[in-house]
Structures are given as C-alpha cells and as structure tokens.
Amino acid sequence: MRLTSFKGRLLFALITLIVLVLVGLGIIIGELVKSYYLNALHSRIEKEMNIVINQTEREPSFNELRSELFDELSDVLETRITILNEDTDIVYDSGQAVSDVNHDLMLDEIDQSLPGPSNGIVRFPADTDDTSFYYISNVQTGSESGYVVLAAAFDNLENVYRQIWLILAITLGAALGMIIYIGARITNQYTKPIESATEVAIQLAKGNYKARTFEDRADETGMLSNAINILARNLQEMVSEQSVQQDRLKTLIENMGSGLIMIDKQGYIVLVNRPFLNFFHSDLEDVLNESYVSVFKNKQVNALAEEVFLTEQRVRKQILIEEAFPQKHLEVYGAPIIGERSAWQGIVLVFHDISELKKLEQMRKDFVANVSHEVKTPITSIKGFTETLLDGAMNDKGALESFLQIIAKESDRLQMLIQDLLELSRVEQQGFKLNLGQVDIVETLNDVAVMLEQKADQKNASIQLDLETPLVIEGDADRLKQVFINLLTNALTYSYAGQDIVVKSKKLKNKIQLQFIDQGIGMEKEELSRIFERFYRVDKARSRNSGGTGLGLAIVKHIIEVHNGEIAVESEPEKGTVFTITLPIKVNK
Ligand SMILES: Nc1ncnc2c1ncn2[C@@H]1O[C@H](COP(=O)(O)OP(=O)(O)OP(=O)(O)O)[C@@H](O)[C@H]1O
Ligand SMILES: [Mg+2]
C-alpha cells in the first residue's frame, strides 16, 4: 500500500545512508588499525634489529661469530637473522621464518642497493602480499663492516586483519540493528499520524464525512490531524447544510402545486415534479432523461417548448389538455435558463392548473347570461303590454285591468328577482357577518308556519312541526328564518294539493338536525347535485310558472355554510323530498 511504501522508502533511505556511513567508517577504522598494528610491528623489529646489531658489534670478527648465540636470538625474536660481510657473502644465517627462495632474491637486491652506515635501517617487503619484510642495516665488527638482515614473516597478519574486520563488522552490525530498530520506531511514530490522516483524507474523498483521526500529539503531525479533523467537520456541516437545502428545494418543487419540468440544452428532461406527472398521467421513469419531443404528446406544449428553445424568450400560453379527464386548462410558462456568464443551460416549463379559474369564469358568464335572461322575460312582457295599452287598448276597461294586473305581476317578479340577487350577493360577500344571538328554533319555525298558513291553505295542506323542546342554538335569527321560509315554500310549491309537510328535529352532540319532509313531486337523482346552483331549476317552465327564480336554494346553502352547518337532500320522483340541515349549537366550534 502507499502508506507502507512511504514508511518503507523513508526507512530504506535512512538505512542506506547509515550503512554507507558505517561501511565508510569501518574501512577508515580498519585501515587505521591496520597501519597502527603494522607500524607497531615494524618498530618492534627495528628495536630487535638494534639488539642484533649490538650483539654483532660485540663479536670479534665476522668469521668468529658465535652462531649459537645468534640461533638463540633468532629463536627468541622469531626472525630470520642473516649476517653478511663487506662482500655480501653470508657469514651467518639462522634459516628460519622466511623461505629460502625469497631470501636469495633479497640478497640480490642488497647487491644492487647497499645501505650505507648513515642510512640506518632499510626496510622493504619480501613478497607481494606484504606479509614478510626485510630489515637491513650496516654493522661494524672490529674493523670490518658488514650487513645485518632481519627477515620477519607476519604470517598471522591476515588473521589479525580478519579479526579487526570481524570485530568491526559485529559492532557496526549491532549499531546498524539498533539504529534500524530505533529508526523504525521513530518513523513509525511520525508516519502513524500521517497514515491515519491519509486514511481519513481517503475516506473524506470517498464521501464518508464522519471519519476522524486521533489528535494526541502537540507537534506538526498533531496539527495535521487537527486540520484534517476541522476539514472533515466543516465538510460534514457543509454537506448536511447542503442536504437540508436540497431537501427544502425538493419539498418546494414537489409541493409547489404547479407542474415543473426542466429540459437541458440537448432537449433531455432533467427534472420533473409530481404535479407535472399527475397533469399528464405519466410515470417518472418514462419522463426523466428522455427527450422532451417524445414525452410531450400534446402538440401545443411541444410547440411552446420549441419556441422557447428557438427564441430564448419567455413564453406564456394557455393550453387545453383534452387527453386529461376531466379536461384541464393549463397556463404554461416557459423560460430559458441562463446560467452564470450567460451560459445557455436549457429551459424550464411551469404548468399552472387554471381549470378552476376557467370554471369560475364560465360560471360568471353563465350568471350574467342567466340574470339577463331572467330580467328580459318580465321586461319584455311589461313593455309589450304597456305599448298595447298606449296603442289604444287602455280604452277597453276590461283589457286595461287585465293588462295592468299582468304588468303588476311581472313587476313583482322583477322585484323578487332583484331582491334575491341582492340577498345572494350580500350573503356571498366576503366578510359577511352574521348577526349572532340565541335562536329558539321551535319559536322561529312556528312563526314561519303561521306566515305560510295562507299558502298552505291554498294547497289544502298543512305544515306539521314535530320538534323536541327546547331547541336553542347560536345563529342569525333573520337568516335562519329565511332558510326555513325558502325550504317550506319549496316543499309547498313542489307538492300536489292535500300533501302535508312535516318538519322533524333531532339533537346530536353539539349539533341539531332538522328535516323538511314533503311527499311532493320529487326530483331525479341527477338533479340533486345541481339544485343549489344559482338559477338552476329542475323544470324551467314549471318552476317559472310557480314564480321561482332558482336562487332560493343557493341562498339557503350559503346561509347554512356561514353558520358552519351542512345541507343535504334526498329525493325520489313522485314520492317526495327530504332536505336535511345540520347546524352546530355554537357557530365557531
Ligand atoms: N321540495 C322540493 N321538491 C321538489 N323539487 C324541489 C324542491 N325544492 C326545490 N326543488 C327544485 O329545485 C329547484 C331550485 O329550487 P330553488 O328554491 O333554488 O328555486 P325556485 O324555488 O325555483 O325559486 P326561488 O328562488 O323562488 O326559490 C326548483 O326549481 C325545484 O325544481
Ligand atoms: Mg324556492
């Protein structure tokens, strides 16, 4: 691994350096010891030479040398002693220590360069190995002069050298071992924090921002560990911050309510949110990373995207998605994404669902059309009869009276219509406030029943109140009265003669329930969901004849809703209808 190789390299360099130094040191020490040893040997031999010269000088002449004495000396000194006369003839030779062949060679050499008395001791090697030497000196015996030659063989020199080297090798080897051991420990100490820091750095690079290293040292490596840990902490914070941001952005995109889609500059979809997928009933995997041309089945959407790509301008368009059920009106907003330094990165499309708005717009149009239509009929009739009267019909007393009655009836209708419209707009007004108080439902219903007695009598019917007492809730007395009048009037209007109407009550927890039951003409199931719409009448002709405007139930529904109540209807043609209203005892609970 990289780390061990770092440590290895460090150790290797250190060891090589130390080995080189130790070997160099060894060679120098070896040579020093060697030359010191050799010098010691030479000076010993030279001292011996002096002994031999002294001895020789004590002899009377070269021919009368006491050879046994010199034999003894040669033995003690372990050197070969040779004495030559002036003519370099051998007068004595102990014949030991140095081989004869070399000895003869040496004699030849003396012949060539005889040392004079002033030369002292002349030394030269006897062989190429430097293991034997000749020491030659001038000597006087009586009046004769001659030469003393000592030959010493340092046969054990090799052994001595080997020992020197062995000792050196052992000491230096031991030193090397110790240095390696200590060096390894020291490098370990320094490389361990670096290894750990490196390991953490690798983990960080891999994205594991939880990795931490030890901070147990106060030196540079400690600072490194500390810095790495700070880096890791900062990275972790940054990443968690980033993931929080990303989560927020994701939540925002997913929950923005509008569809969103991002297309890169190559035309591939890189981002899409759930509302978009819902609008187009598609799955994420069919959309993401696909070309937008293949994803947008709708030609208009495709064209819009193309337009943004071509013009690099913002585009806003309303589009009808017919494939969707129910049909959807979308407002599509397309914009180019221009990044930093005006780099073109693609486009973004936002889809707002404006179906509800469209529906409201349609309702408003319908409303205006309905109102005009409702107003037109009585006005036309009034205008027609007035013109007829003015044209001379007013002279006919019978016609005059009947026409005026029609005009009065139509004016009533108009008045009623306008009153209802005013009422509705007042109730629907934002910020409409109820005039809250304690309302005795039993009392109110009794009042309404009395008010409608005449109308009931005309139908030969009666209103029966089957109520629990007491029945008091919080509410707006006048508005609730209006609700009861509307519901009971409807029940009377849409019943046949002789069919009684019943109002029942039920107390629930925190609520009361009232049911308005008739056995009249009833309604088809399909109608029920629409009767609370403004101007909606089940059978237009019949209802208009009854003088209705189709606003009554719309007003009722509104009043119930501002009381936080609910209204429901059940009906069966020719069997009857039941309107059920539920009102809370306290409005704001
Ligand atoms: N009890 C009922 N039985 C049968 N049909 C009913 C009953 N109540 C309402 N309807 C139907 O619902 C329609 C809407 O009722 P709504 O009270 O809103 O209008 P309206 O009675 O025609 O006019 P007005 O605004 O004068 O009340 C009526 O035209 C009628 O066809
Ligand atoms: Mg009505």
Automatic annotation (TrEMBL):
Transmembrane segments: 12-33, 164-184
Keyword Methyltransferase: no
One cellular-component annotation, GO: plasma membrane
Protein's membrane topology: Multi-pass membrane protein
Keywords, in A-Z order: ATP-binding, Cell membrane, Kinase, Membrane, Nucleotide-binding, Phosphoprotein, Transferase, Transmembrane, Transmembrane helix, Two-component regulatory system
Main localization, broad class: membrane
Protein location: Cell membrane
Pfam family name, one: PAS
E.C. designation(s): 2.7.13.3
Protein's GO biological process: cellular response to phosphate starvation; regulation of DNA-templated transcription
Residues covered by the HAMP domain: 188-240
Domain Histidine kinase: 370-587
Residues of the PAS domain: 245-293
Catalytic activity: ATP + protein L-histidine = ADP + protein N-phospho-L-histidine
SUPFAM superfamilies, sorted: ATPase domain of HSP90 chaperone/DNA topoisomerase II/histidine kinase, HAMP domain-like, Homodimeric domain of signal transducing histidine kinase, PYP-like sensor domain (PAS domain)
Gene Ontology MF annotations: ATP binding; phosphoprotein phosphatase activity; phosphorelay sensor kinase activity
Protein name: histidine kinase
